[in-house]
Amino acid sequence: MALFFFLIFAFCTGPGLLESSPKVRLVRGPHRCEGRVEVERNGEWGTVCDDGWNLKDVEVVCRELGCGAAKGTPTGNLYKPVADEKQKIFEVNCSGTEDKLSKCDQLEDVYECSHSEDAGAICEIPETVRLVGGPGRCKGRLEVKHQGLWGTVCKAGWSLSAAKVVCRQLGCGKATLTKRCCNKDTQGHGVIWLSSVSCSGREENLHYCLSRLEGNNNCTHDEDTWVECEDPFKLRLVNEDNRCSGRLEVLHRGIWGSVCDDGWGIKEEQVVCRQLGCGKPIFVPAKERRNFVPGNGRIWLDDVHCKGQEQSLEQCQHRSWGYHDCNHKEDVVVFCLEA
């Protein structure tokens, strides 16, 4: 019988969370463990004022959500679109030892705070999925962690949609291949945790997919699942003086290359600035943009089209990697406010 995968991973979400859903969430971030903080009160979700918000408060959020260590307290305005004006704003004060945000000191409806002061949180992503035996962390035999032990996943029922979820969860690029694994030297050993995994491909985490639990499959390690993802989508602005302005370059197959400006506009710049953790795009005349020395070597992307709300340029449409009709005089240059 198909069961939700998060039942398998209950050990990593902390005691009690299967009985009661978390009353806190992180929204508009690149993954479930980063974003603008929202808390639930009487069936309504509101934001948290950043007055007094610190890493101790974030530690509690990370703990309640079953995420890893607290890493940062960014402003909630980094995560677009911003909160609805109708949402209430609360104030929270934690010691850092609480297991839930609801156990911290709280003030209802803070009227002197505006949504420009919403709090954000960054937590590490807990390691519950990995790819091993490949030429890097984004290619290899799929393993999941349960009860402190790593085990394999049976290829039965597996699909590229499920591989997309794994690649997203690992912070890798797009899923490119999934197949039955492996030879005797590279196949897994020990427990086979999962089989008949079914994902739509839109899930943020593999534990939201359906699967069969350990003990309900007839698989052997000859049927272990192998997944290959593109390397993580990285970008940078080349400028000796300012990381938030410069010629745009993206990393593909270990090589940095430029982006053609065909169709490039403000929405695309919004995504780049957001992904780099910089401020809003700045309008700069074309003459000043031409002051940057053109790139050389690869032109990786052309005809990039974004809606403006994406968290990564990878989520925008573009031609296939390396396909373009440009030269380096058309390299994209981006100017963002410094964060």
Task: Provide an overview of this structure.
This protein has 339 residues and is mainly beta. It contains 4 helices and 20 strands. Strands 1, 9, 10, 11, 12, 13, 14 and 15 form an 8-stranded mixed β-sheet that branches. Strands 2, 3, 4, 5, 6, 7 and 8 form a 7-stranded mixed β-sheet that branches. Strands 16, 17, 18, 19 and 20 form a 5-stranded mixed β-sheet that branches. The longest helix is centred in the N-terminal third of the chain and has 10 residues, at 55-64. Residues 24-124, 129-230, 235-337 form the SRCR domain. Residues 1-18 form the signal peptide. GO terms for molecular function: serine-type endopeptidase activity.
- Average pLDDT reading: 84
DSSP strand (E) fraction? 25-35%
- The portion of residues assigned to helices is 10-25%
Number of strands: 20
Q: How does the overall form come out from the CA principal axes?
A: flat
Q: What is the terminal-to-terminal distance?
A: 50 Å
Q: Quick one: biggest sheet?
A: 8 strands, mixed
